[in-house]
Automatic annotation (TrEMBL):
VOC domain: residues covered: 6-121
Organism (species): Telmatocola sphagniphila
Matching SUPFAM superfamilies: Glyoxalase/Bleomycin resistance protein/Dihydroxybiphenyl dioxygenase
Pfam families, per the entry: Glyoxalase (PF00903)
Name of the protein in its database record: VOC family protein
PROSITE patterns found in the cross-reference section: VOC (PS51819)
Transmembrane parts of this sequence: none
Length: 124
């Protein structure tokens, strides 16, 4: 039994260059809900995370986010149409591919190195 109902859960995503990361997520199509002193809330669909002006290389290099989507191919089409890799040299952007654990995954890193897994269930 828990003490009270859970109302929200958000990850704090690190950023090496806070303003560049804000622009990256806006370009990707995430909605900037608000921005404060070193923290910004982004939303995609009904889900949110907090981008923070904080960077420790080992932490950032090992930070990952997982986003289940209906169709990774449409996200890949969007990423390539806006030339995200061209606009942000050094990021990782790998086309969706079936993974051994049964999900099709598009891998995308942000300018800090945070690795996003955009995943869908093929045939579901």
């Amino acid at each position: 039994m828990q003490a009270s109902a859970v109302l929200d859960l958000k990850a704090f995503v690190p950023s090496k260059d806070y303003e560049l990361s804000i622009q990256f997520y806006k370009d990707l199509g995430f909605k900037l809900n608000w921005q404060g002193d070193g923290v910004a809330e982004f939303q995609v669909g009904a889900y949110r995370f907090l981008l923070q002006k904080f960077h420790v290389e080992q932490h950032s290099a090992n930070f990952m986010m997982h986003l289940m989507v209906e169709n990774t191919e449409s996200w890949w089409a969007h990423i390539t149409a806006i030339d995200l890799p061209g606009k942000y040299p050094g990021i990782t952007a790998k086309a969706p591919a079936m993974q051994p654990w049964g999900l099709r995954v598009l891998f995308l890193s942000d300018p800090t190195g945070v690795l996003w897994h955009f995943a869908d269930r093929v045939g579901k």
